[in-house]
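We treat protein structure as text, and this decision shapes the records that our systems exchange. This encoding replaces a full spatial description with a residue-level series of whole-number codes. Below, we set out a record of this kind in full and without editing:
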Amino acid sequence: MKYLDEYRDQQVARKLADEIQRAATRRWVLMEVCGGQTHSIVKYGLDALLPENVELVHGPGCPVCVTSLEMIDRAHAIARRPDVIFCSFGDMLRVPGSNADLFKIKAEGANVRVVYSPLDCLKIARANPDKQVVFFAIGFETTAPANAMVVWQAREQGIQNFSVLVSHVLVPPAVTAILDAPDNRVQAFLGPGHVCAIAGWTEYEPIVGRYRVPIVITGFEPIDILQGVLMAVRQLEQGRAELENAYARAVRREGNPAAQQMIDRVFRVCDRAWRGIGIIPRSGFALTDEFQQYDAGQIFGVETIQSVEPAICISGQVLRGLKKPHDCPAFGKQCTPETPLGATMVSAEGACAAYYNYGRHLVAAESLVTRA
């Protein structure tokens, strides 16, 4: 396919891997922030192409994975109500809460529906005036414009039986939290291309300056990722710390101003709890006072729900780049895509699901047998 195959060219990939090997004279740890990048890395085996002294660790850039357990349980509490039609993107239906997931709740009789656009919810609300229609609005800056638009349109169209449960998170504060952690291992970042296509990269520039850490904005195809790794390694080797854009075909420094304006009309920045990480200050979006009438958390009184993560699940350490999925004692055993303990095994962008789907659990098991 034109303009796609060229970013998956094996010969180009091997040349880039050879360049990385020549460039890397010391040991370096890089984090790809976005779950989509993690998926590509595991799918195409890009980490296996790299020299042993260049390690890729997986970041908290999967919005499904980092949606807090409390927020999942709040969503489930709302979905169980007989007067509610609960709408969500499909990737949230199998994310485990404390006691169930949305699939199970739907099987028990709840009116849970998969939508492909937030605006679908307004059609459902108009067609069901006797029901309260709730949309589970999750995601990073990438999905925030569309979710802001649906709230704006609900007000413009005078739709009263619609609300949103907002769980938006922002990438730059998460990067800062990783760097501030005393056990941080990350020395450079592959920045999230799709997020930066909306938000631009100006918020990352102070991070580069303060922490002296290279950040390379990177796409999602194999050549994108390997080029980003090469640029980051060259910076590290040369003692530089700069923000570079390796995804110029989609990302500009200023991002998408029209999308940002829509976000600013509807959302405000707030503190947000991240699953497996905890509360990160000013790392999320919430509705502004002007749109509080569409806040499902307040309407249904679920904001006080608190939850406890399964003790065996190490997804938080995976999301912070401290552990790999196969380091978890439950990986591929108690925790599989059919019986997930954590969201990183459910989401298509989750590191645990990527490792499992592409056979990394089999490699880990074979290694254990060999050592025995």
